[in-house]
Amino acid sequence: MINFSGFYKEIADSNLQHWLETLPSILGNWQREHKHGSLPKWEKVLNKLHYPAPDSIDFSTSVTIGSGEQLSAGETEKLSNLLGIFKPWRKGPFSIHGIQIDTEWRSDWKWDRVKPHLSPLKNRTVLDVGCGSGYHMWRMFGEGAKCVVGIDPSPLFLCQFEAVKRLAGQQHPVHLLPLGIEELPPLDAFDTVFSMGVLYHRRSPIDHIMQLRDQLRMGGELVLETLVIDGDENAILVPSDRYGKMNNVWFLPSVEALMLWLRKCDFTDVRCVDVDITSLAEQRSTQWMQNESLVDYLDPNDVSLTVEGYPAPKRAIIIATKNQPNLDLI
């Protein structure tokens, strides 16, 4: 069974210590009641990941664990087969003892777009909301973050993260908790909060922005990445049914509308630092994710449109600072 006691110990003497009033009970309930049918199988695989400490680790320019020279060909094949049980791998890529996990998303490309605009992460406490398998968390740690906490309710992503963490071979202050943001109390503690690829899945985007705000210390930095459309501050797309075959897409604002929402939620220094149309090279099917991917979500006769006729995915990165609330609006 996946154990969270190490995280409890780490935050016991930190500005997150008041989270211990509720977190062990919430995660205890998750461990007792979670019914995902594959979780026991995945946990058995995790228990088989006993490998020597890697001879090299790189989290600053990639997520690379081991040079690939420590394991025999047979051991490498066995490890690759074990990691294959956690398919589909969506966020990455990872290099583990010479095994190249070519994930659906080139998440390193997104990180390359985000990183130049961040306040330095060195010695910061960071929250990554909707972190997936944790690729970006390792890159945040590689930038010197003191502690990185990711939340994502998917048990598969949790097991993928745990596999990478165990193979990294030592205790790193990087942790994934199988929670949604609605399960977090207002912590007002993180120096930087990331929400990348989450907002459009929320039925109430303003509530999500306020939940993100509640996790930041005063003066902390929000990094928000989401799907957007062209238009002025009043432009918002609400798909009538599916968007890119996804049935859980609710709101796609324009950049101007999104920035207005953030200012309305008492963020200052709100700025758009990047807008990028998702390419077929950045999101695609691979050996490690053999399901449908972006090419299947676009109109085969016009890749500027989704199969439903909406504008193809375009993503913006907005950075903002938590400010004192305007008491006149409360």
From TrEMBL:
Binding-site residues, carboxy-S-adenosyl-L-methionine: 91, 105, 110, 130, 152-154, 181-182, 196, 200, 315
UniProt keywords (A-Z) are: Transferase, tRNA processing
So what does this thing catalyse?
carboxy-S-adenosyl-L-methionine + 5-hydroxyuridine(34) in tRNA = 5-carboxymethoxyuridine(34) in tRNA + S-adenosyl-L-homocysteine + H(+)
Question: Looking at the keywords, is ATP-binding present?
Answer: no
Q: Which GO terms describe its biological process?
A: tRNA wobble uridine modification
Q: Which InterPro entries match?
A: CmoB, Mo5U34_MeTrfas-like, SAM-dependent_MTases_sf
A single Pfam family, by name? Methyltransf_9
Q: Does the keyword Transferase apply?
A: yes
Instruction: Tell me which EC number(s) this protein carries.
Output: 2.5.1.-
CDD domains for this protein: AdoMet_MTases (cd02440)
Gene Ontology terms for molecular function: methyltransferase activity; transferase activity, transferring alkyl or aryl (other than methyl) groups
Superkingdom of origin: Bacteria
| Listed NCBIfam families | PRK15068.1 (NF011650), tRNA 5-methoxyuridine(34)/uridine 5-oxyacetic acid(34) synthase CmoB (TIGR00452)
Its function, per the record, reads: Catalyzes carboxymethyl transfer from carboxy-S-adenosyl-L-methionine (Cx-SAM) to 5-hydroxyuridine (ho5U) to form 5-carboxymethoxyuridine (cmo5U) at position 34 in tRNAs.
- Family per similarity comment: Belongs to the class I-like SAM-binding methyltransferase superfamily. CmoB family.
Subunit-structure text: Homotetramer.
Provide the protein name. tRNA U34 carboxymethyltransferase
Q: Which organism is it from?
A: Shewanella holmiensis
